[in-house]
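Appendix C reproduces, verbatim, an entry submitted by the partner laboratory led by Prof. M.T., so that reviewers can inspect both the input and the predicted structure.
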Amino acid sequence: MLSIFDKGAFAPPPAPFNMAAHVLRHAENLADKTALAVMSQDKAETWSYRRLEAAVRGTGAGLLAAGMTPGDRVLMRLGNTVEFPIAYLGAIAVGLVPAPTSAQLTEPEVARMIAELSPAAILRDPEIACPATPDIPQLSLEALEEMRGLAPAAYQMGDANRLGYIIYTSGTSGTPRAVCHAHRAIWARQMMHQDWYGLGRDDRLMHAGAFNWTYTLGTGLMDPWSVGATALIPARGVDIAALPQLLAGYRATIFAAAPGVYRKLLSDHPDIHLPDLRHGLAAGEKLSDTIRDDWHQATGTALYEAYGMSECSTPISASPACPANPGALGKPQHGRRIALVDDAGTPVPLGEEGVIAIDRGDPGLMLEYWGAGEETRARFRGPWFLTGDRATMDGDFHIHYAGRADDMMNAGGYRVSPLEVEAALARFPGIEEVGVTDVEIKKDARIIAAFYTSAHALDETALAAHAQASLARYKQPRLFRRLPRLPRNPNGKLSRRALREEFEATQ
């Protein structure tokens, strides 16, 4: 039997279609319901569905009045404020193509994006780095705020397959790629509502991330709004240690965060009382069994993990209705067609390792990489889009993640997943975080190295003995190094590439 999950195609979106109209489709019937609460410890700024839709459509009208026309690209250099999702949806509502970007980018990085996308305008918070653009207007926060009160623009309806927005991903090479998504991408996210979130209209979903993170935009805002639920977002400057108090005080029923946030919360609050919380969601990097188990012990609630990528959001997940098998991250969602394939794009037998591949007809799959036709074509093999992530599929179609193809280590001819080694070492007492990669110690000689953080120096002889007891010899690190912190990319994911480069630069 081959590693293919195919339970039928997801229903196509209606025609004509607009992503922003879909997100705010409940605004008329739920006009006075709280759509968004921006929370601090002593107060919250609340937005009803009526107020939110008016601000979105007013902003769309203002962007058109500023000289933009449907199809124009708009680069977003905005910070962690409510203006971010309002401007994002406002642009989409009137047929513009927003390109949200990380606030942590430097001017040279942004300059390359501007050169690549040739935006018609830049939406600009003065605190966020951006080069001067004499030929491209930069619209200020004040200008965007004034647009909220304008007469609402009509939704620009059209083909669901037309370009809707552009997001950047670092890519396996480290070079950012502009990922182009259609309006239909929001329609496809409905497959996650029950097969990951367990999300309903009565939920109050709190996301720990900033407004200007795509994980927050999708899971924390767009999805709750599209079902008529309430989104809860911590205000700018709220410390992570305050999140349990906010979760309890604002009666969150679902919590979404990256695994590192759960790790930090557990280290600060070993006993967390959240009477309204039903469960938590994790994505962004692999969730360890240690964090999952410790969270359940501290709160009495489960964590459900999802696998995703910028090119297709999160098509594989666990959920309250279908928890993951032991060691698995979850299974493909109903409506998806997912396979594990070899380098030629041929599905491998169940139980064998292969590359996670997504049917090229998936409604959530990207259109292309902007201006990179060759790179786009290279990601496809026959009917499949190849993610570059490796996994195995069990008899229940649950996916057991093995890491990115470029993260896989080679030890004496054996291919080793760093995730397996990290999971073993994370159980050693005293280790806070651990990252594993292979490093070059001399020409053509590579070993597995483990980099970790801890409150105090650890006995590395005992650590090596722990590895010996937990792992086959070829999987055991030959080098251990304590670091003050592990390198992470702007989205908070562990960068094994940076670990490798930092080590080899010191040799």
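The domain at 407-505 is CATH 3.30.300.30 (GMP Synthetase; Chain A, domain 3). Additional entries are available on request from the coordinating office.
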